[in-house]
Amino acid sequence: MFPLLGRYLLENWTEVLPGSSTPDRLSFVQLPGSRVSTFLILGGKRDAGHRRPLLAVKIPRSRAGEDYLRLEYQNLERLAARWAHLPGFLKSIPKPISLCAIGGKTVLILEGIPGSRLHTFPTRGLRALARVSGWLAALQSATRTQAVLSAEDVEAMFLEPIRKFSKGVELSVEARVYLRRLEDHTRSLSGVAFPLVLTHGDFSVSNILLDVRAEGAWDDATVSVIDWTKSLDAGLPVRDLWHLLTAYAKGLTPEASSGRITWCLRGPGSYPRTVRRWLDDYCGQLSLPRWMQGLGIAFEYIYGALDHPWGIETTRRERYQDNFEAFVHGIGSNDEDRPFALLAD
Question: Quick check: pTM over 0.90?
Fold first, then answer.
């Protein structure tokens, strides 16, 4: 595949990157991934000691990966058209160049974005994480809308996913009680003005790039976000922030995925307290009721298990069910004044 890909890029370089001279040769760096293989095409010039990526080329490993590439290409074009008025937003997402066939495979070619992935930065002080969470809150505040939900909206957004999630699987008594209360609560949202925001859908540390121009200058770091495959123009608030906070916790605790969720909710140390404070600050900035925290977190796992609304890949359903159980069991007596208690008591 490498020879075919390299030949295609060199032969079509002026169309792929107009205004740039065709390089003598290309350097490839492969990034880890499960559904898709991603290769960075590096330039010859160094910037701040690093070679800047000129292109990112994504090649599917499976039929699901091919479907995701098409969806990502469509989403990036949609985002560029829908949110072009947001200051700096288009510079923070990949620009799609081409979705084409090379060697019998569908290939997505994107403009390269400078920066290092969030998980490569030191965790002490949490300043890099604070920069990213602030960027997210600002973006979702700018894209926040209100929609009066019809009975059909409530069915499609909440009730049907709850039923599908709980059907034919073993769940604890506590989890089923929580789901019944969640169903009752969301049913009551019919006719209610409900807040919706632009969501990424997989706002993990591996999909976030920070370009720090000066040592320790976190407040001025440029935030870029890749892999918008699961983005929605009108999605549920809180989901992206919670995904980010629990994913970042991987570098702070040896706990597995479900253990990190419980730890973020009620664990010892300063980070769980920071998580709770940032959830509250986020809701304050977006003028959200506090019960949106429990709702957004619950549907992070319900939607994830079903790959809702796309249904392309559901192989991770068991993991999301475990995470949902961890969330429910992580709700403790210290949540009496928290939004989770509204659904769990």
Answer: yes
